[in-house]
Amino acid sequence: MFSLFYSILFKTKNEYERERFRNVPECFKDLNLHKIFEVILKDKEEFELEGLFYTPLQDEETIIYRQEIMADLEDDDFRKVITSFSKTIYKLNKIMEKIDRQLISIKSYENNYLTCGRMLDCADVYCREIYNLLEILKGKKFYSQGLNAFKEYIGEYIKSDKFQELKNHVLQLRKDLSSVEYCMFIKGGTIRIRKYQGEIDYSKKILDCFEKFRQGKVKDYRKKLDEEPVAAHVENGVLNILADLYKDIFADLRSFCEKHRKFLDHTIIRFAVDIQFYLSWLEYVQRLKKVGLPFHYPKFSKGNDAIFVRDTFDLALAYLIGEKTITNDFILNPQERVIVVTGPNQGGKTTFARAIGQIHYLASLGLSVPGREGRLPISDQILTHFNREEDLSTLQGKLQDDLVRLKDILKKATERSIIIINEIFASTTLSDAIILGRNMLKDISVLGSFAVIVTFIEELATNNYEIVSMVGVVDKNDPTQRTYKFVRKPPDGLAYALHIAKKYNLTYEDICRRLKNES
């Protein structure tokens, strides 16, 4: 009896068959997640992984199931084995789809002994791949439930009557076909074939004659020919004649194809495709790990646990700038629900907010996330409000557009939602922005959602016990230099605009002096 293993992505068949999203989630552009997944999906285009990356999970059990598998696959040597195995199985499946169509075709140039031979080759490779993988799996101890279940499945599959019959039939056919010996006479456009009758093998004599000139290993200048024959009709003709000379062997080859046409195991094919979800992610983050950026598998909050991450960063930005990436911490203690981010312009506030949104989304997929350690909530959705160009077709001003979009967010949000809002109400007066901002925070408080608010309105970072103020830090010796670090502290009321103006000689006095000199 086979183990209950069905998928390396989900614990049960029902979960696996649940509908997945096919469209890009709304939060992707605001959080720059589209830049991350565009790279991954382009490299793995043939596997059609979009639905897996576009569909976050909401149950901790499945997320942890994936995290444990991902952690096991971080072993470089083992990952190379799985990468090679999955590529081979995927390629075999594609080849067999074509062969299967040819074997049921009524066209002789498709359904022939050449096609049968290709299927035998595929079956031979398949059996060897399965055996080789099992030998490697036997020597591995896995932490994950998923890979242990797959290991058990492979062990049981190899012992099954179906696989043993396939393997034995392949071995017997290989042995029988290797006994086929014949002589070919070519004259003009005519080929004659008969059984080998003990004629001298001149090829061996020629090799023996030139043996004394052999100088050991040298560069091989032979050109590798295409796998697909360029004269298939000639090969088919030769095979048809041989089939008359060796009727039993070629009849057995036909029988093999009829009996084992669907020899590929569906669970193993599914594994070869689904494992790309993990391999593609590990391949993507490997580049960042090499420059010392940390990744981890977050734990998940229960009840009144604090929410935190140490040394996190914007993954999309880090992929571009590498080791120059600045990391940050954040923590929300029990009862704290909102982070209000303030600080100088161009100080990294939006990047910090994006980083928080990214890690929540990535964690919901069961992936490793930027940071050294962390504990996060499992959200039902991530809702974002970032600045957009005005849509003239709606005839709405910027403020009205902000309010309409905010209303839609608050309508969708639940206590399990993550809300990321960046520089809202920038188009109105400060006094109005303060009123609107405080009303927004009240609504978020009623919902109980976790929120990150990037704003120029420092009055929103009040002493409310649910609100945490985080402020962008500048270099203490040179206030014009941003550190892109954020700390928990009340707003300092400093925009540092005057320091920047001084740096570039743009203060009121500088401009007046320049105008006076020019006049």
UniProtKB/TrEMBL annotation:
DNA mismatch repair proteins mutS family domain segment(s): 336-516
GO process terms (BP): mismatch repair
InterPro entries: DNA_mismatch_repair_MutS_C, MutS, P-loop_NTPase
GO CC, any one term: cytosol
Signal peptide annotation: none
Gene3D superfamilies reported in the protein's UniProt record: P-loop containing nucleotide triphosphate hydrolases (3.40.50.300)
Entry GO MF terms: ATP binding; ATP-dependent DNA damage sensor activity; mismatched DNA binding
Keywords carried by this UniProt record: ATP-binding, DNA-binding, Nucleotide-binding
Keyword DNA damage annotated: no
Pfam family, one: MutS_V
PANTHER family recorded: DNA MISMATCH REPAIR PROTEIN MSH1, MITOCHONDRIAL, DNA MISMATCH REPAIR PROTEIN MUTS FAMILY MEMBER
Listed name of the protein: MutS domain V
